[in-house]
Amino acid sequence: MAESEPHYHQPFYTIMSGTGPGESDTNYVPLVPYNGTTATGGDSLNDNLNVFYESGDIAYMIICTALVFLMIPGVGFFYSGLARRKSALSLIWLSIMATAVVSFQWFFWGYSLAFSHQAGKFMGALDNFGFMNVLAQPSVGSNRIPDLLYAVYQGMFAAITVALGVGAVAERGRLFPCVVFMFIWTTVIYDAIACWTWNPSGWLYILG
């Protein structure tokens, strides 16, 4: 008697869609390989782009992103506790401004300069300028994480790096020049080093 072939179950995730008050309809959508037909993976308004990734991976990265975000005001309170009373509020303000300024810079061109798919050994290209085509394509960090989630995750690290540096401004500089410095430093220094280190095209990444 011939042995029966093993049966493999394709992984799936669950979508809950309400059908009425107190009711829900459960549909199982199989995970499929990334299609690669478009730069974004499809139209998010008409297509379900979540089928390319495991929901557990997405949830884990979202939690990690939130935890890094919570560290930013924590750094501000830490620095304000070390400084004199007259500088305490300004240090908290600078840590929050680091999030605002770096978030804009990251959306504007920071993510593209650091993690674009067409990056060179020293700096990324501007093919993701303004988060253009940053959606469901597998990220350069991992093919299990979409570009959009990876961009937000790395953006939080860029923000907290700048927030850590503003402690040097306490009682030594003015606030507005510091805000301008945040944007310039993130563009010239952080984005370049992030590309070298974490982008697979970066020269330090290649060296291992």
Q: Reading side by side through the largest sheet, how are the strands ordered? A: 1-2
- Whole-Å distance between the termini? 53 Å
Mean pLDDT: 81
Shape: elongated
Largest sheet entry: 2 strands, antiparallel
Total of helices: 5
Name the poorly predicted regions. 1-30
* Topology order in helix (H) and strand (E) letters: EEHHHHH
Derived from helix and strand composition plus strand pairing, the structural class reads mainly alpha
**Which range does the strand content fall in?**
5-15%
Using the CA coordinates, give the radius of gyration.
22 Å
Q: What is the percent of helical residues?
A: 40-55%
Counting DSSP E segments of at least 2 residues, the number of strands comes to 2
Properties at a glance:
208 residues; mainly alpha; two-stranded antiparallel ribbon; elongated; disordered N terminus
Write the layout of secondary structure elements.
Elements (H helix, E strand, L loop, with lengths): L11 E9 L2 E8 L24 H28 L2 H31 L31 H19 L9 H24 L4 H5 L1
Antiparallel strand pairs: 1-2
